[in-house]
Predict the structure.
Amino acid sequence: MSDDKNEKKVHGIVAEYTSVDSLLVACRRIRDAGYTKTDAFTPFAVHGIDEALGIKPTFLPWIALGGGVAGLVTALLMQIWMNGINYPYIISGKPYISLPAFMPVAFELTILFASFGAFFGMWALNGLPRFSNPIFTDPRFDRATDDRFFLYIDAKDKSFDQAGAEKLLGETGTEYINTVVDDDSSTTVPKFLLTTLIAVIAISFIPALVVARMRVTTSSKPRFHIFPDMDFSPARDAQQTTSLFADSRAMRPDVPGTVARGEMEENLDFLTGIQMELLSSVDADRAERLVRTYAQEGEPSEKASDQGAEPAKSVMDTTPWLEQNPIKITEAFVQQGQLQFNIYCSTCHGMDGRGNGLVNNRAQQIMASSWIPPASMHQQSLYAEQYPDGKLFSTISNGIRKMPGYAGQIKTRDRWAIVAYVRALQQSQNASLDLVPENQRAEIKAEQARVEKKLAEQAEAERKKEAE
Amino acid sequence: MSKHAPAIKPADDPAFQLPSKLSALSIPLCAGGLFALIAGWAIGNWGVDSHFSMSAYLTAFIYCLTIALGALFFVLIQHLSRAGWSVVVRRVAELIMLMLVPLAVLFIPIVVSLWTGEGTIYKWDDPAFAEHHHIPAAVWENKTLYLEPNFFAARAVIYFVIWIGLAVYFFRSSVTQDETGEKRITERMQKWSAPALILLSLSMSFAMFDWVMSLAPMWFSTMFGVYLFSGGILSAHCAIAAGTYLLQKTGAMRDEVTVEHYHDLGKYIFGFVFFWIYIAFSQYLLIWYGAIPEETIWFYHRQLGIWGVLSLVLVFFHWILPFIGTMSRHVRRRPTLVFGWSVYILVLHFVDVYWCVMPEVYEGPGGGLDAAGGVPGIASSLLSAAGMVALMLGMILTIAGQTRIAASRDPRFGESLAFENI
């Protein structure tokens, strides 16, 4: 290197042309002369220049295709892993691995990765990013973006020899040939730049350190708000004045005719399913608490107000529940109950109340580990004698075990209607024949005989099968 | 430019005339097509029933109609975007779009069927339909406000007035330019292409709602018009490529249409294969995850028996296979391969239309081959389609014989000749 000090390293040769046609002719000349590491610079896209220079079709489409396929596979595997394996979660009753739902993301990632492939592949193939190119040192080269055409032969070309290349280019009708030499300016970074850089990095640590220190220390000064967020609300507090209304009161009186929460006219027995009179004699504290909370907030979850007072089980057993539905049972009322039951309850408890609803079936099918099967309405312990109407009502309102409370979704009256319907359901499963109108008894008997016969036949067939 | 573009030939050059080999085919095609159409109808009518034969006829009709509309769309888009590359192949598209005129005549049997027999094609035409399917009276009343024979016929007239108006206007302007070579005509066509596109898109979507979607009167999908349109525009590109190839093979426009034009048509075909599945899937996905019974019923019918097989055929052979097949630039730069894929997709587009129409012919889930009408049913469907296509081809050739097959005096003709893909 030392003896080359005065003689700069040749990077290549550039020739200038005034028209596209002369450039294309020159391109073909040097292509036919065997040069491959060549390039042309034009102010606009020139059709056929690839062929004239002998540039092979780009490899880029394959990179884009690879990117696209990678995106597709990534998206599918990601979604299968996330939703099907790592965190199985039922969405809209669809299977865990449900391809139609995965398609949009798969499509988007295919496009994204293919675009990345094309974009960064183009960078890689062009050797970008590159901060400078020795060819830019020639002032005449600026006109490559304006009205001149340039042809460049790289010195790294296998068949490159400077004199020959210059001669060849000279024959192509160029007006100007220049040797492109390596940039000889020093490659060492100036000291002041390094110093500044280090200083900037050092200074940038200060805010982070200040924040870090603040996070672990206490201070008697008020908080420093860079982003106030919602710390300072323009909303008025109670008892403050305002200029917004004529009477200067920030607190507005009730609109006439409003029924405020807690001022409902229904009695507490109806709202809680508990005989409050009796409760106050058994457990005065709890009765008082219930009265107070209902007076204030309407219908709170009793569980919440009860927490820590007594173990839950004994409360359920000791509470004097209402024995009877406080609403008169009519056909319309039971039908209303059926409607509500089918909407809210049947998903788990099943249309017939046997605990075989769709959600339960699905949970059994996928063997969901945390699933507690819903109770059948037809077990002895849920009949009216053991499970008073008020208790059933309270269960619907406040939930039990995994079942959430439905007080928020179902109106009080409708909850009582459901209670009535559940009683009807229970009766329907144990109805004796004399409950049926007389004219229909024969029909039911015939049906019964038919089913019994069929069952007997089945049993017979099974026995035979076993014997074989 | 590397290769000098060929000089523009004089307008009366034989290169712009329909080759005699093709013009000789026009009468046989028309006659044979008409015969096949009638034979197809007859086989369907007596082999299966009148409901079936008319549905097979409707399938063939919608198949040709979507391609003609796609061609009209192509012409409008080229004007709207002031495209230079497409001028040499535009006349082929213009000839295809002109088929909207005979198609209007062929639509008459479909309208007439509304009055001759209740529910011959459209079930909503049958007064007993609502009762039969336990549709509440209020719902049915709302449906029949729109689906009513007189209103239906009136809408059909409006659609055809719009389409024929546009097709004839753009065709005649282009043909006039062959004589005068005026640049003003091109400018006028450009000006009108934007409102024309809006009219076309809306009328086409509504027509597809009316004529195909209402086969299942209780089902609705706002994507449906776009769905059939996407298949139609795809097929129109295929038809243009195939038509151009046939013209070149028989000796016309040898120098004018180059690999570059096939390459561009191939790009369009590739893109619209994906557009088609994109629209088809969009429609399917929304209905699938909504899982509302009245919406899923349409796809449910198409998941059972032979229709389920056909659905899979569409996914694999209308999308995946041509998508991979036309992806490569090397395929698109070989006219023979572009022609092959075009014919292939045109066949699959028929399957697509068939899949939309025919499962509605039978009530309830379909079984095996019987659901498609058995052997006479399939023969009827194929003959109807072949007859309709042959009839259309014959008419295209008749018209093409009387005009030129390239808009050779379009101001951008030179640009189109010299066009090269980068």
Observations:
- The interface with chain B takes residues 20, 24, 45, 47-49, 51-52, 57, 61, 65, 92-94, 100-101, 103-104, 107 of chain A (CB under 8 Å).
- The two ends of chain A are 100 Å apart (CA to CA).
